[in-house]
Specification:
- By secondary structure, this protein is an all-alpha fold.
- It folds into 2 domains: about 160 residues, Cytochrome c-like domain (Cytochrome Bc1 Complex, Chain D, domain 2, Orthogonal Bundle); about 150 residues, Cytochrome Bc1 Complex, Chain D, domain 2 (Orthogonal Bundle).
- It is about 35% helix and about 0% strand.
- It is built from 16 helices and 2 strands.
- The chain has a two-stranded antiparallel ribbon.
């Protein structure tokens, strides 16, 4: 009787160990840089989409796979390239039908610290998970249909098993697909620039770079820090929305198109100043090919409009009126914010 009971217990234990309900993907917390943990609060990780080894691997595969596009010619990475800090070197990206959009591809890094949780230039997406939905079905981008995408993934020889490993189900859905992509995108962390080393006493800035930092922080000079932070904010953006004086009239309403509030017209999200070496051209429509053009805009190119940000205090003078030397110094400082290791990190390559 005792041996029969032992055999039954062994069978029960075996069955439980092989029950799908007992499986859980492997937890993989973000590798948070020390400079972040010292200066900013914890990253935002949704409780229903924790970071896992299997989820990140699946998200990476999906990010680089042309299967998300209608004709199998483009992927997320087509417009968010690792060598461009996950941006695009074209003013506005071209979709699968050869049609260019109206927006520049935003670089993708440090997204887990976007505390207002509005994504895209206009803040339309309210989470990183939902941000990945529209590009797939947008007729100017991947021009696909989520039902078709899910069907292609379900019939794929590898993806059902990869979804099973990541989410404990081989029934693929749009929601699980974008959750996986979001997990991968949260791993895209950039925090290894010359300026990061300087803050940690591991590098020395030149006099010109230090002068540029001073211009950046002074309200009577560059006055850049209100929207783009300071050495205590390693994100180098407030992730908020501003009308920075690009136009006196708007063909693109930006945040105003999303909220329907006329006071938001012409407002766009402040991008991070990290990795400027790799993310040209600049602004929401890629109108500035060089960093010099960006500095010239704030120096003497501001355009007034009803929704101009109050932080553009010298709009009536055209800008902050920097000298040629001050412009050169400011540029030298801004270039210290680029992170060469980010664009070569093997974990972020296809």
């Amino acid at each position: 009787m005792k041996s029969l009971f032992s055999f039954g217990l062994l069978v029960l234990t075996y069955n439980c160990s092989n029950d799908d309900s007992a499986y859980a993907p492997t937890t993989q917390p973000l590798d948070i840089p020390e400079i972040f943990s010292e200066n900013i609060i914890d990253p935002i990780i949704p409780s229903d989409n924790p970071q896992t080894v299997e989820g990140i691997a699946l998200g990476k595969k999906l990010f680089f796979d042309n299967i998300l596009s209608a004709n199998g010619t483009k992927s997320c990475a087509s417009c968010h390239s690792p060598q461009n800090a996950f941006a695009d070197n074209s003013p506005t990206s071209v979709g699968i039908d050869g049609i260019a959009g109206t927006r520049n591809s935003m670089p993708l890094f440090n997204l887990a610290w976007n505390y207002n949780e509005r994504f895209n230039w206009d803040g339309k997406a309210l989470s990183l998970e939902t941000q990945a939905i529209e590009p797939v079905e947008n007729p100017i981008e991947l021009h696909s249909d989520w039902d078709n995408v899910v069907e292609r993934l379900q019939l794929h020889p590898e993806y059902p098993e990869l979804f099973d490993l990541a989410f404990n189900t081989n029934v693929i859905t749009k929601e699980l697909t974008t959750k996986a992509i979001a997990q991968f995108e949260r791993t895209l962390i950039s925090a290894n620039s010359k300026f990061d080393d300087y803050i940690q006493n591991e590098a020395v800035l030149t006099n010109q770079e230090l002068n540029g930092l001073d211009i950046f922080l002074r309200e009577d000079k560059g006055d850049c820090f209100h929207c783009h932070g300071n050495p205590n904010n390693p994100l180098w953006t407030d992730n908020d929305f501003h009308n920075n004086g690009l136009d006196s009239q708007f063909t693109d309403l930006g945040l105003g198109h999303v909220t329907g509030d006329p006071s938001d017209n012409g407002k766009f999200r402040s991008p991070s100043l990290r990795n400027l070496v790799y993310t040209a051209p600049y602004m929401h429509d890629g109108r500035f090919a060089t960093l010099d053009e960006v500095i010239n805009h704030y120096s003497e190119g501001l355009q007034d409009s009803p929704t101009i940000d109050p932080l553009m205090k010298k709009v009536n003078e055209g800008g902050v009126q920097l000298s040629d030397q001050e412009k050169a110094d400011l540029k030298a400082f801004l270039l210290t914010l680029s992170d060469p290791s980010f664009i070569t990190n093997p974990a972020f390559q296809n």
